[in-house]
Prior knowledge:
Layout: H1 2-18, E1 35-37, H2 53-65, H3 67-79, E2 88-97, E3 103-108, H4 117-128, E4 139-148
Antiparallel strand pairs: 1-4, 2-3, 2-4
Amino acid sequence: MRRTTFSMVVLLVFAVGCGGSQKSGDDEKSSGGWLEDSDENEYEEANDVLVPPEKYDEITQALTRKGPAVSRCFAKAIEEGKVDKNAKGTVIVSLGIQPDGKATNVKVLPASSIKSEMVTDCVIEQISSCRLPTLPKTVQTTYTYKLERDY
């Protein structure tokens, strides 16, 4: 009985310690990245204006919909020999989103494992043209695209 109780306490502590946070998305080939607010507090305050959680979901959906375009950037670089045909990895994008939904200051972060100027330039172009939801204030965020060759 004591052993069972101890096991349940250890299991409970482990489960609580995990916290259920989700850092990665689905294991899809072209995208499935995660959205991170640049501030630790998702409900960041700036002049008492909050960005509703639903807006963060809309941003994630819009950036996920760009996954096929980002995959095409990667495929074209492979076709042109700019990226090894067996390469796979991530492209991490940082961007600002203005209240009108326009993407600004779009960058591919150095932490990305796909290191190709051709891919970087194409991804920046694709995300810069992305229509994002209108927001009550400017938001800075990141999104990760997982890329691998489609066979």
